[in-house]
Amino acid sequence: MIHRTLLVTQSFSPEHSGGIERTLDAICNNVDPSRIVVIAPPSSNGPSGDPVTPYTVIYKDLLKHTFARPAWLFRLPWFLATVRAQRATRVLFGHYAGWVSLGALTKLITGTPYAAMFHGLDFLSYRTSMMRRFLLRWNVRLAEWIIVNSSYTYSLLKDFGVPEGKLVIAYATIGKPVFVEARAVTQFIAQYNLDPQRTLLTVGRLVARKGLARVINAMPEILTRYPDANYVIVGDGPERASLERLAHELHVEEHVRFLGRVSDRDRDLAYAASCAFIMLPVASSRDVEGFGLVYIEALARGCPIIATRSAGVIDIIRDDNGIALDEQADTHAVADAVNVLFGDSARAAKLAAQGRTFVEQTFSVERFKQTFSTILAAPEQPTRPIRVSVIIPAWNSVETLPRTLHSIALQTWKDTEVIVVDDGSIDDPKMVCDQFPGVRFIRKDHGGAPAARNRGFSESTGEYVLFCDADVMLHPRMIERMVTTLELKPDASYAYCSFRFGWRTFDLFDFDEKRLKQSNYICTMSLIRRKDFPGFDESIKRLQDWDLWLTMLAQGKRGVWVPARLFSSSVGKKGISARLKMPPQEAVRIVRQKHHLG
After folding, report:
1. Burial level of 135, CB count in 10 A (0-12/13-18/19+)?
2. What are the tens digits of pLDDT across the range 464-483?
3. DSSP class of residue 315?
4. What is the Cα–Cα distance from 75 to 455, expressed in whole angstroms?
5. Contact, 89 vs 378, CB < 8 A?
6. DSSP state string for 427-467
7. pLDDT at 50 > cutoff 70
8. Confidence (pTM)
9. Do 335 and 393 lie in a common domain?
10. 508 lies in a domain?
11. Is there a cis peptide before residue 196, judged by omega within 30 degrees of 0?
12. How far is CA 38 from CA 98, 179, 382, in A?
């Protein structure tokens, strides 16, 4: 069965060519085309303007309807039918709009998971009314992944209440810069009468927050020192007329070139003909520069950047690739920054070289592809071979062990080894294990759960280890969700989840070091990186899991919460039900004393 992803967007190339569109292009071009189906509005030029692509594109505008409002709600029957017809196993919304509710409703009706991408401005635009905020909160709560373009957007969503385990920063990529012939660059320079050692460049939509007016205001001061300086502006937008008027009023119109919207080739020629890229955005409560893909383009093409420390730009601008200004920098500060690059060619060259290296390391195609391949990959076809060892200590568990092993057999993640360690039971757990092909059975003398888990670990081979209780039922996607989370969160040593105990639910929260030192809230049934597992302390008879997490915390290792209920246990006298009772104060005292918690 082919696992397909529906990529839903209201803005797609070639109709638009901004950062969002180029990011979605990069997703489509770096994932198996047979696994991508794009839903996008038809071109304004009609069917003849729609591009030929190696992936399927369905042209449908989900945000417009002749009579109904909201339009997306009345598209639900069509959307559900499309999910079924395309055999989609997940939905990816390329940016946030009200239509993400289609994903939430589809998940509730069919169980199809969805992810939503946020670019900053789309999030801010949907907090303007109580109803929009309600839908926004509902949509992000039901989404499996929230994919953001920068640490700034990450902080916006985290402050909004989105769990860290659901948030993924996926930096955009531009691929390898296009080669342009030296003769073409020379012709471009001659056409616009430019000096490549004294030319500033801005590429982007001409809106007020981009800060182009400040650059134009600084031009008279720049020209007093460098009379041959020029400022090239590529792009169009509502501010163009006022910017042209400003250049005329300041008598610098001969040094400010408005090229408008140009082809990709001409844009690359503009980069090649410039010595520095400048854009000075200012963030507001309703409008921000969520990332700034053009800065990455400039650095990759050898242009040091001059930028403000604004919103998502802080992930790009550094002391070793350009000059960072405050958001409220005046025209004198702007002119001084430009004069530094114009007057010190050695420094400019060093910044350019370091900028290229920074882009290659941080915004590479390989890194981008790995992130989205991990999110969109089918569980039986991961992007790299990952084996999970499931270790089950069993002690007189014949009644509950069969359902646990059955739930493991139904996991969507197939590359697993299951090891049952019999801790000196008086019943016969081997008889149960023999009914499940591939399950390894190990018998040992009774020594307690920590010793049984350590023995199972010593016999295991998996890159990740799940210590599973013998009286639980796993959600079919439990291992898949946990593995994917750790793959996307390389700084986390283990993943834990919420769960259900009888009729009671234990909905947890993001990792909290202070709360963990006060009491244990993380269950043993967590997925741990093999390289980070220190072993259970076999002298600890109760609260072994709390002791384990505190030991790892002391080593600088942290967990990440997967915000979903991924296993359940029925009420009983043994196993997890017994452990959920209030532990004796003596057990608490022993653990606290061991870890010097007072």
Report:
1. middle
2. 999 999 999 999 999 999 99
3. G
4. 55
5. yes
6. S-HHHHHTTSTT-EEEEE----HHHHHHHHHHH---SEEEE
7. no
8. 0.88
9. no
10. yes
11. no
12. 18, 29, 22
